[in-house]
Amino acid sequence: MAGLTLKNIQKIYPNGYHAVKDLNIDIKDGEFVSLVGPSGCGKTTTLRMIAGLESISGGELWIGDKLANNVAPKDRGIAMVFQSYALFPHMTVAANIGFGLKIKKVEKKIINEKIEWALDLLDLNGLGDRKPSQLSGGQRQRVALGRALVLDPEVLLLDEPLSNLDAKLRIKMRTELKRIHKQLKSTIIYVTHDQAEAMTLSDRIVVMKKGELMQIGSPSEVYNKPANKFVAGFIGSPPMNFIEGELIKDGENYIFKYNGNVYKLPSYLKDVIKEKIKGKEVVLGVRPEDFEISLQPIENAIEGMSIVTETLGSDDYVAVEVNKKLLSVRIEPDSNFPLDRKVYLTPKEEKFHIFNK
Amino acid sequence: MERRWNLQKIIWFAMIILSIFIVVFPIYIMFKYSISDRSSWITGGRYPVPWWPFKPTFEMYKYYLSDTRFWGNGFLSIKIALLTVALSMFFGAPAAYSLARYKFNGKAVLLFLILSIRLIPDISSVIPVATVFNFAFLYNLPVTLKVALAHTLLGLPYVIYIAQGVFETIPVDLEEQAHIMGAGKLYTFIRIILPVALPGLAAGAIYVFLLSWNEFVFSYFITATSSVDVLPLPVYLKSLFGAFTPNPVSIATLSLLVSLPVIVFTFIIQKYMVAGTTAGAVK
Ligand SMILES: Nc1ncnc2c1ncn2[C@@H]1O[C@H](COP(=O)(O)OP(=O)(O)OP(=O)(O)O)[C@@H](O)[C@H]1O
Ligand SMILES: [Mg+2]
C-alpha cells in the first residue's frame, strides 16, 4: 500500500490547452479520495497522469516514497478502471480478470485462485465463462473492478465507474465499493461528477474547477465550510441559495443590503468577513434546510413570497421569491404550505455563508 | 400472432423473390449449359434453346476433371490465393493499424494515395511490375511466391483500407488498459487488437482471396516463361484455348468448377464474421 502526493502538477495538452493548473494534493495510504467537479474540469486528465497514460507537463508525482513522473505505468503499482470499463470482448470474464496476472507470469494455480476470489468478492459466481457481451451493465462494471483488484494495486484509480448505471444499481454498487474498500484497504482515487456519490463514499473530497483546485476536505468540511461560492454551489442538492448584495459597516457589525432591503448580519460573521471578504460586493449563501420560515412578521428577516411547493420524496421544499430570484426552502413534509403569501426567512444559527462576488 | 398481407409485406416478399432470382438464375443458366448435349445449344434457329437439355450429359465435367494439369494448376492457384491472403494480412494489418492509431498530417491524403494505386488500369501497371519481376533475384523465385507477391501488391491497398476502418472502431481504452497491466505493444496487438478485429479482417481476406483467384493480367505476364505445368488456373485455361473462342459448354462448366474454391473459402472464413464482437467492451 502507498500514499500519493501531487506537487504543483500541471497538464498542458499538445494543442496548448492548460487542462490542469498547479494541483497540490496529499493522499494518505488507504484513503478513499474523490475528485469532483463539472464536466471538463480535468478529473480524467489528473487520473490519467497518475496512471501514466498522460505525460505530466510540470510538477512532481510521488507514489509511496518514489518520484513517479517518469515511471512506466506498469511499474507504478496502480490499477485503473476506465470510465468505459474497457473489457476485452473476446475473452471470458475469467480470462479478463486473470489477464493482468497472466502478463505478470503468475503461476496458473494462483491465477485461478485469484479469479475465484474476485468472482466471489464481487458476487459474480458462475459467470466466469461468459463473454462481456452476455453481462448486464452492473456485472460488467464489477468484472472491470475485479480485473483491477486481483492485481493487489497499491493505488486503485476509478474513473466514473458508476456513471452509466441506473439509479438503483448505482446505489447498490456504491455500498459495494465501500465494503470492498474496507476489506482491501487500498488507496482509492475516485473520479465522479456526482457530488452525492462523493459525499457518501469518500474520506476526503477534492473539488476542481477548470483545472484548478477549489477545496480539499472531508465531506462534512466541504459541505459545512465551503471555501468559496463555487464549492458551496457544487456540493449539496438541492444547491445552496445565493443572495447578492453589498456589505455596509454598522459599528462593530455589518449590514447586508440587497435590492433596497437590509438585513443585519449576526455578529459571528464579522471574523469571517475580516478574513475572507474583499470589497463591498458579496454573496450570502444559505442551504435550503438552514432557513427558518415564518408567516408572521419577524424583525430582521429576509422577506419574500411563497410561490410553489415541490417534493423530492423524502423532503418538501417551497420556492420563495426574493429579489426576483427563487430561493428554495425546506419545509415540514405534508404541511400544506400556504402559497402566494408573504413569508419571513431567518437563517439558522451558524448556518450563514458569505462569499466574495 | 396475426398474419396480414399488407402492401409493405408484399413488396418485401417480392424483393426477396427477386434477389433469389437474380442470384439463382445465372447459376441455373450456367448449369444448364454445362450439361447440355450438342443439339441442346446449337439449334440453328430451327427451334428455341430448351429450358432443360434434351440429353443431359456430364461429358465436359469428366473431360476437365480428368485433366491432371487442371487439378495441378487449380491447386497452384489456391496456394497462390492463400499465400496472397497471408502476405497482404501480414503486411497490411500492421500498416493499417498504424494508420488508424497514430495521428499525423496528411493522413487522409496518404490513405487516398494508397487506394489510388488501383485507379491505374492493370494492363498499364503490369508492365513496370513485370519488369521488376525480371530481376534475377525475383525471377528465380518459385511461381507460387512470385505470383502471390504480385497479387499482394494488388490486394494490399484494399486490406489496408478495410483494416484501417476496422481498427479505428476498436476503442483505444482496450489498449491503454492492457498497457497499464503491463502488456507490451506487440502482445496487445496480437492478443487484444487482432482477435477483436478478426470479423472485419475476414471480410478483407475473402476479398483478397477472390481477387487473387480471378486475377489474370499480372499472372499472365509474370508466368510468361513458366512451364504449362505450373500456371495459375486463369492463365492455364487461356493457354488451353489459345486463339479459339471456347464453346458455351466449356465456359459454363469451368465457371462452375472455378467458383467452388471461393465458396468453400468463404464458408470457412464466414465463421469468424459473426457480427458485433466489440459488444460488451465499452459501455
Ligand atoms: N487530448 C487532449 N487534447 C487537448 N485537450 C484535451 C485532451 N483531452 C482532454 N482535453 C481537455 O482537457 C479538459 C479536461 O478534460 P478531462 O477529460 O480531464 O475532463 P473531465 O473532468 O474528466 O470531464 P468529464 O466529467 O466530462 O469526464 C477538457 O476541457 C478537455 O476538452
Ligand atoms: Mg472524465
* Major sheet characteristics of chain A: 6 strands, mixed
The domain count of chain B comes to 2
What is the number of strand segments of chain A? Answer: 20
Oligomer: heterodimer
The strand order across the widest sheet of chain A is: 6-7-8-3-9-10
Number of helical elements of chain B? 13
Strand content of chain A: 25-35%
CA-based gyration radius of chain B:
24 Å
* Helical content class of chain A: 25-40%
Helix amount of chain B: over 70%
Measured between the Cα atoms of the first and last residue of chain B, the distance is 35 Å
- CATH class descriptor name of the largest domain in chain B: Mainly Alpha
CATH C-level category of the largest domain in chain A: Alpha Beta
Q: What is the ordering of alpha helices and beta strands of chain B?
A: HHHHHHHHHHHHH
| Tally of distinct domains of chain A | 2
Description:
The complex is a heterodimer of chains A (357) and B (283). Chain A has 357 residues and is of the alpha+beta class. Chain A has two domains: 4-233, Rossmann fold (3-Layer(aba) Sandwich), CATH 3.40.50.300; 238-356, Nucleic acid-binding proteins (OB fold (Dihydrolipoamide Acetyltransferase, E2P)), CATH 2.40.50.140. Chain A has helices at residues 43-51, 93-103, 108-121, 137-149, 167-184, 195-201, 219-224, 229-234, 269-276, and strands at residues 4-12, 18-27, 32-36, 58-63, 66-67, 78-81, 155-159, 187-191, 204-209, 212-217, 241-250, 253-258, 261-264, 281-286, 291-294, 302-311, 316-322, 325-331, 342-347, 353-356. In chain A, the strands form four sheets. In chain A, strands 6-7-8-3-9-10 form a six-stranded mixed beta sheet, with helices on both faces. In chain A, strands 13-12-11-14-20 form a five-stranded antiparallel beta sheet. Chain A has a five-stranded antiparallel beta sheet with strand order 15-19-16-17-18, with no helix packed on it. In chain A, β9 and β10 (212-217) form a beta hairpin. In chain A, α2 runs parallel beside α4 (137-149) and α3 (108-121) packs across α4 (137-149). In chain A, 39% of the residues are buried. The longest helix of chain B has 34 residues, at 68-101. By secondary structure, chain B is mostly helical. In chain B, α8 packs across α10. Chain B has two domains: 1-57; 68-275, MetI-like fold. Chain B is built from 13 helices and no strands. The radius of gyration of chain B is 24 Å and the shape is globular. Chain A binds chain B through residues 51-53, 73-74, 78-80, 82, 84-90, 99-100, 103-104, 131-135, 137, 140-141, 147, 151, 164, and chain B through 171, 173-174, 176-183, 187, 192, 195-196, 276-283. Adenosine-5'-triphosphate binds at residues 13, 15, 17, 19, 37, 39-45, 193 of chain A.
